[in-house]
Design a protein that fits this description.
This protein is an alpha/beta fold. It is built from 19 helices and 20 strands. Helix 7 packs across helix 19. The longest helix is centred in the middle third of the chain and has 27 residues.
Length: about 700
């Protein structure tokens, strides 16, 4: 009772009622289940269980913490129920980890953070079907409960409280009966209640089975139980949310506006399964929130639809609703509207979540973003504040520099100087104008939170960056494309057959195009190697002629371009094993000191292979059986040795493993949308987020 009295309004939606039923006399079943009371009395709030139903499926029970608070809110309506004057004063009850609210007056549930046309019905369960513990329909349940109390209230219950065993009632006549519209209920004792169907087929079956000697109850009746199998308690509550994940959709939401909500629900369900299996020892959990930014945008209105020809209209409409988003984003007219739409929705969701969970920021809650397809590009541009206007300014500056380099006449020089002076004067006037009133030039969108992890799924971001002029550098830092001050970690997830996905690592360090992406672990892998301990391994280039050793046949060499079903065999164990010196080199497999010796053969005009000095034993003997693969040349230092090759600080590209019976051509069609329900992806996301939670906890313990 003391726990029930102190419910915070932020958790209960204002329904802070105390549990009066806790002080009543109770008896537990021998097996230690739900308490049973000695005499028949009205059901306690903890015995009633509330249910919800989504997508017209079976009724699902709310957890005890939610059900108890809904029931207490329902009882606050008073004897008049939903029609009473008190109904307006009862606030909605926050349920399902805070994602939904229940309006007990209307008997409906609705989401808090996104719009949904279909309301989710909720039901108060008092009488339940034996075995399945599904509730009877509320109207029938109310009639049975009323009849039960009228007939048996105050009577002593049986000594045996074992509800699981349905004892035969052969020879027992019903001591009480109730007729319903399509069924009737018989009480064979206070605790033995059966429901019978009055349908014609059931009557015939009942008559036949009774004549054959079967009991009336066992032949066609369904045993009913009063009160739920498990008592609702305030301890049965969800863990606190310490990490929220915004799930951003890509193209095609105009075609199916509710798809991102369904996709996020699939990802959330997969994450719940993974949490139960691998992260149940954590007191907190990760919550996924859909970000639906497309439906609120007007863009061109219906102009594109009006210019669309009628032939193959279905296909054209599908393209207009999906691929057209890419054209909108590359249009200078509509790009800002798309960026602003996503940025405002992200900030709205974060502000709303923090207002409903005031402890989230106080306790250092983290935020990550999972983006899909084009959503990755828009999210990236919001985070770094990229604008195509900057690109245009850089282009103009480059043209001016080229103009200065070439020979000019006196008149051209004079006009150019005049242009510079005019531009400088224009900038000064603009600055003075901005000082007098707010700037009318749109500033880069700003997020109200720091992004901990940015997960890209099936992302074309690398292509967009390459077309913007991003080229590989000499540093292995993520800062080259996304500064760590903006986002702590960038991770690029893709299916090997996804035609829309591209790699990001070669944009940071060029030689990573010859290194395979990190393979994402199967969901059910026992004791997988942590990702930070997985060493980079070579892809096997097959674009140029390859000579193979006697012990290796050509047929056994896998092709990276076809992403074989079996685990890839790599030339070389890791970068570190070869001294970080021949990362671009192909491996030569031999029987040297370490079991493997590696030689590099770069592309050159000479036909003589150039080998690395590998130690006292040398590599001359191994050169005869070396595998030669053409690769881009490495830069050489003045001493003639290869310069050490830089490694990435953290790996960025992570590749899903293909199924054993997966068709590559079919995967090319389906893989772009296969991420949402993947348990492998869910485990991957949670591994990184819970690892950070663990690291933060251990650092606090150290302090």
């Amino acid at each position: 009772g003391s726990e029930g009295a102190g419910l915070a309004s932020s958790e209960s939606g204002g329904s802070g009622f105390s549990l009066a039923a806790a002080a009543l006399p109770e008896r537990r079943r021998p097996g230690g289940g739900r308490p049973r009371y000695e005499v028949v009395r009205e059901l306690g709030a903890e015995e009633v269980r509330w249910f919800y139903r989504e997508d017209r499926k079976t009724w699902k029970p709310f957890i005890g913490y939610d059900s108890l608070r809904i029931e207490l809110a329902y009882r606050a309506l008073g004897p008049g129920g939903p029609e009473s004057e008190a109904a307006a004063a009862v606030e909605p009850v926050c349920v399902r980890s805070g994602l939904y609210e229940v309006d007990v007056a209307s008997g409906e549930s609705y989401p808090v953070y996104w719009n949904q046309t279909e309301r989710i019905p909720v039901m108060r369960g008092q009488w339940f079907i034996d075995g399945t513990w599904q509730p009877l329909e509320e109207e029938e349940s109310n009639l049975i409960e009323q009849e039960h109390l009228n007939r048996f209230k105050g009577q002593q219950l049986q000594e045996s409280f074992d509800m699981e065993v349905s004892k035969p009632v052969d020879g027992k006549e019903a001591i009480h009966s109730l007729k319903l519209s399509r069924n009737h209920v018989d009480w064979h004792s206070v605790d033995e209640v059966y429901l019978y169907s009055d349908a014609t087929t059931s009557k015939i079956a009942r008559t036949v089975t009774q004549k054959l000697g079967f009991s009336k109850a066992s032949s066609s009746g369904t045993r009913l139980h009063r009160g739920y199998v498990e008592e609702a308690t305030l301890e049965d509550r969800p863990p606190q949310t310490s990490h929220i994940v915004f799930v951003v959709h890509g193209i095609g939401q105009k075609m199916d506006q509710g798809r991102i909500i369904k996709n996020t629900a699939m990802m959330r369900d997969a994450a719940r399964k993974v949490e139960e299996k691998y992260f149940s020892n954590f007191a907190t959990h990760v919550e996924f929130l859909p970000v639906e930014w497309r439906s609120k945008l007007t863009l061109d209105g219906d102009t594109v639809d009006s210019i669309t020809p009628d032939k193959v209209r279905g296909l054209r409409d599908m393209l207009n609703s999906s691929a057209m988003d890419i054209m909108y984003y590359t249009s200078p007219l509509y790009r800002d509207e798309l960026v602003k739409g996503l940025q405002q929705e992200l900030n709205r969701l974060y502000t709303l979540f923090c207002s409903r969970n005031p402890e989230f920021e106080e306790k250092g809650g983290k935020v990550s973003i999972v983006s899909h397809s084009l959503g990755c590009v828009i999210t990236y541009d919001i985070m770094i504040g990229w604008n195509p206007v900057r690109l245009y300014e850089q282009l103009l500056q480059k043209e001016e520099e080229e103009l200065e380099d070439r020979w000019m006449s006196y008149e051209e020089q004079r006009l150019l100087e005049e242009l510079y002076i005019t531009k400088q004067r224009l900038r000064e006037i603009e600055e003075r104008l901005h000082g007098l009133k707010a700037s009318t030039i749109s500033k880069p969108p700003v997020l109200k939170f720091k992004v901990e992890n940015f997960f890209c799924m099936g992302s074309p971001l690398a292509v967009f960056l390459a077309l913007r002029g991003i080229r590989p550098g000499n540093s292995g830092s993520q800062d080259h494309i996304l500064p760590r001050t903006i986002c702590n970690r960038l991770l690029n997830i893709f299916h090997p057959s996804d035609p829309v996905a591209y790699r990001l690592e070669p944009l940071i360090l060029k030689h990573y195009s010859n290194i395979s992406p990190v393979q994402i672990h199967w969901y059910n892998t026992a004791n997988p190697l942590p990702y930070e301990h997985m060493k980079p391994s070579f892809l096997n280039p097959t674009k140029e002629p390859t000579s193979v050793t006697d012990s290796e046949s050509v047929s056994t060499v896998p092709s990276p371009t076809t992403s074989p079903v079996l685990v890839r065999r790599h030339y070389g164990e890791s970068i570190t094993n070869i001294g970080k010196a021949s990362i671009l080199g192909a491996a030569s497999i031999g029987k040297g000191l370490g079991g493997m010796l590696f030689s590099r053969f770069g592309r050159s005009t000479t036909t003589t292979p150039q080998t690395l000095e590998t130690g006292k034993d040398g590599a001359e003997g191994d050169d005869k059986k070396a595998t030669t693969v053409g690769t881009p040349p490495l830069s050489h230092s003045s001493s003639g040795f290869l310069e050490p090759v830089v490694e990435l600080e953290h790996r960025i590209d992570f590749e899903l493993r293909e199924g054993l019976v997966e068709s590559r051509y079919w995967s090319a069609v389906t893989s772009h949308t296969a991420y949402w329900s993947s348990l492998d992806v869910a485990l991957f996301l949670l591994t990184f987020m819970y690892k950070q939670e663990d690291a933060d906890k251990s650092s606090l313990d150290t302090i």
